[in-house]
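sry for the spam today, last one i promise. C-alpha cells for design, 432 residues
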C-alpha cells in the first residue's frame, strides 16, 4: 500500500516530538495506520537550532511552498502556533488539498468557524486532539466515545502552568510571585505568562470543549474569568484548614437549556479527583446523562504527551476516521442547536470570602449585615490572631451557603468600601 506523505510545519518542541515518533517508531505507527506514514518535509525558519531528534537533512526546508504546492503531501501538521499568519497558512493548505492536524487552541478559538467551513467546502478535515489538554484524549472522548450522551457538565483543570504554580504555593508555602518565578525557571511558564495565569488559555480551551460538547459557538473572550494572581499563600492555608485545595477550574454546565461558563480559582474538596490534581497535570470531568461521571487525568502539555496526540490524529487521518468524524460532527456549523449563554450573575455556588479587617468589636456584624441584605447566608467563620498582625488588622474568612454570583459581587464591592476593611478582599467559588 502507498504511504501517506506527511509534512510538519513548525519544528519547535512539539514538532521535534512528532518527528521523533514518526521517524523512530515508523513500524508501530504503520501497523496502527494500516499503511506506512512517511515524513517527507519539515518546514521551519530556524534549521540549525539543536533539537533532541536527528532528521535527514533533505527533509528540512524554510520554504513553506515546498509543502503547500506539493500535490503528493496529503497531511500537513501545523505546529507554528499563534493566530496569524497561521490562519492564512491553514486556509492555503486546505485549498491545496491537504488535511490538517493542529495543536493550536488559539487558532481554533479565534477562527474555528471560518476554518471548519473552508474544510467542509473543500472536502478536507481538521484534527485537533492536541489543542486541549495535551496528551489527554478528551476530544476523541467527547466527539466519539460519549456521543450517545447529552453532556450536562464539564469541570476541568486545563492549564498546567497555573496548576503547577498553585501546587507550589500550597505545598511550599510560596507566595504567587515566587511560585511563578519557579515555574519560569523550570520552563513551565513563559517569560510573559499572562495567557496562562490570567485564565485566558483555559478559556480558549473551554470554548473548544463547549463547541464540541454542546454545539455552542462561544467567543472565548465572553467567558467570565479570574486569574490566579489574586490568590495568596494565606488563602492556601485557610483552604487546607477548611478541607479544600485551590485549583484554576474551567466549568461548563447546561442549566435550564442555557450554558453557564466560567474560569476561576476555586476551592475544590480534598480527596476528590479534581482536588488531587497536582503539578503540571490536567484533568477533565465530564458528566453525561447515560454514562454518569467520567474522569480523565494526565499531562496537559510537554513535548511527548502533546506529540502523542498529534500522531494519533495523523493515524486517524490515514485510516479515514478523521474524515468521518469531521463530516459527522459538523463542528462550528450552523446546523446544530443554538444554546445561549446563561447570565453570569445567576450562577450559584458556595463561596469562600477573605478579608483583612480592623480588630475591633462589631466588624463581623457589619459584614454579616451586608451579606444578609444581599440574601447571602454565612455557613462558618474563621478569625485567627496571626503573627503577621499589623496596625490592628486581622484576617477574616467566611464560608457561605449557596448564593447567586450577582448578589455576591454586589455585596463584596459594598464590603470593600467599609472603612474597617482593607481593599483587596478575595472571593472564590467552592466546589464540593
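last one done:
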Amino acid at each position: 500500500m502507498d504511504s501517506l506523505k506527511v509534512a510538519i510545519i513548525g519544528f519547535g518542541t512539539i514538532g521535534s516530538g512528532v518527528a521523533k515518533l514518526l521517524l523512530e517508531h515508523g513500524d508501530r505507527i504503520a501497523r496502527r495506520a494500516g499503511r506506512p506514514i512517511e515524513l517527507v518535509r519539515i518546514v521551519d525558519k530556524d534549521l540549525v537550532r539543536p533539537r533532541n531528534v536527528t532528521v535527514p537533512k533533505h527533509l528540512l526546508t524554510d520554504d513553506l511552498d515546498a509543502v503547500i504546492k506539493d500535490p503528493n503531501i496529503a497531511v500537513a501538521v501545523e505546529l507554528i502556533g499563534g493566530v496569524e499568519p497561521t490562519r492564512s497558512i491553514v486556509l492555503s493548505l486546505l485549498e491545496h488539498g491537504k488535511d490538517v492536524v493542529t495543536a493550536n487552541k488559539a487558532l481554533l478559538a479565534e477562527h474555528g468557524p471560518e476554518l471548519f467551513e473552508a474544510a467542509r467546502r473543500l472536502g478536507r478535515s481538521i484534527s485537533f486532539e492536541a489543542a486541549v489538554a495535551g496528551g489527554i484524549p478528551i476530544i476523541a472522548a467527547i466527539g466519539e466515545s460519549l456521543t450517545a450522551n447529552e453532556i450536562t457538565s464539564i469541570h476541568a483543570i486545563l492549564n498546567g502552568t497555573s496548576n503547577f504554580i498553585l501546587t507550589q504555593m500550597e505545598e511550599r508555602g510560596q507566595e504567587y510571585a515566587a511560585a511563578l518565578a519557579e515555574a519560569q525557571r523550570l520552563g513551565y511558564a513563559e517569560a510573559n505568562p499572562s495567557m496562562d495565569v490570567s485564565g485566558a488559555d483555559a478559556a480558549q480551551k473551554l470554548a473548544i470543549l463547549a463547541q464540541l460538547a454542546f454545539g455552542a459557538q462561544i467567543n472565548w473572550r465572553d467567558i467570565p474569568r479570574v486569574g490566579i494572581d489574586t490568590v495568596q499563600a494565606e488563602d492556601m492555608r485557610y483552604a487546607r484548614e477548611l478541607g479544600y485545595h485551590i485549583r484554576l477550574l474551567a466549568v461548563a454546565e447546561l442549566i435550564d437549556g442555557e450554558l453557564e461558563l466560567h474560569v476561576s480559582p476555586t476551592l475544590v474538596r480534598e480527596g476528590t479527583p479534581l482536588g488531587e490534581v497536582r503539578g503540571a497535570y490536567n484533568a477533565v470531568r465530564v458528566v453525561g446523562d447515560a454514562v454518569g461521571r467520567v474522569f480523565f487525568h494526565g499531562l496537559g502539555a510537554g513535548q511527548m504527551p502533546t506529540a502523542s496526540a498529534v500522531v494519533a490524529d495523523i493515524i486517524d487521518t490515514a485510516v479515514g476516521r478523521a474524515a468521518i468524524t469531521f463530516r459527522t460532527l459538523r463542528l462550528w456549523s450552523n446546523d446544530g442547536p443554538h444554546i445561549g449563554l446563561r447570565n453570569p450573575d445567576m450562577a450559584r455556588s458556595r463561596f469562600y470570602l477573605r478579608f483583612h479587617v480592623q480588630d475591633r468589636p462589631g466588624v463581623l456584624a457589619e459584614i454579616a449585615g451586608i451579606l444578609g441584605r444581599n440574601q447571602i447566608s454565612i455557613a462558618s467563620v474563621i478569625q485567627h490572631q496571626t503573627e503577621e498582625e499589623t496596625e490592628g488588622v486581622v484576617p477574616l474568612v467566611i464560608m457561605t451557603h449557596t448564593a447567586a454570583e450577582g448578589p455576591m459581587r454586589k455585596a463584596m464591592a459594598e464590603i470593600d468600601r467599609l472603612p474597617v476593611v482593607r481593599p483587596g478582599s478575595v472571593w472564590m467559588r467552592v466546589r464540593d
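The domain at 138-299 is CATH 3.30.360.10 (Dihydrodipicolinate Reductase; domain 2). ok im logging off now
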